[in-house]
Amino acid sequence: xxxxxxxxxxxxxxxxxxxxxxxxxGLLILVCAMPGDDAxxxxxxxxxxxxxxxxxxxxxxxNLSILQSEGxxxxxxxxxxxxDTSRGNRPGFxxxxxxxEAEALYLHFAQCLRDLGVATETGQFGADMxxxxxxxxxxxxxxxxxxx
Length: 148
Prior knowledge:
By secondary structure, this protein is of the alpha/beta class. The chain has a single domain, classed as D-tyrosyl-tRNA(Tyr) deacylase (D-tyrosyl-trna(Tyr) Deacylase, Chain: A, 3-Layer(bba) Sandwich). It is built from 2 helices and 8 strands; from the N terminus they run E-E-E-H-E-E-E-H-E-E. Strands 1, 2, 3, 6, 7 and 8 form a 6-stranded mixed beta sheet that branches. Strands 4-5 form a two-stranded antiparallel ribbon. It starts with a strand and ends with a strand. The mean pLDDT is 96.
């Protein structure tokens, strides 16, 4: 799986003008399932995300996890994280998992975060979403389970 984490003051996702998910201070997590990923991959990624020290402590250093900072998460499925731009000018997305597998893994990842104690909301899989965020930092971290 691939994930792009952005530390945010707030974030929300709308579908057809209606808010379907939001978070306060915490993480906006764009996530993409890849072929070969499974429930264990999603659970391991969620565990990693929950422990990453991306939030400031009282001294201003990034020493706290999302759990320690009592932050929340907004998880949004984004198959475009699998973009192959090696040929031509039009990205290819054949490196993303099939939609039925991707949706199940996306939802499992979000549930794993909840099970770990992170207040988590989601976007709407497959929808045309408008994502709004206020970056905090900015802090942006790329995770790929094949390399992390």
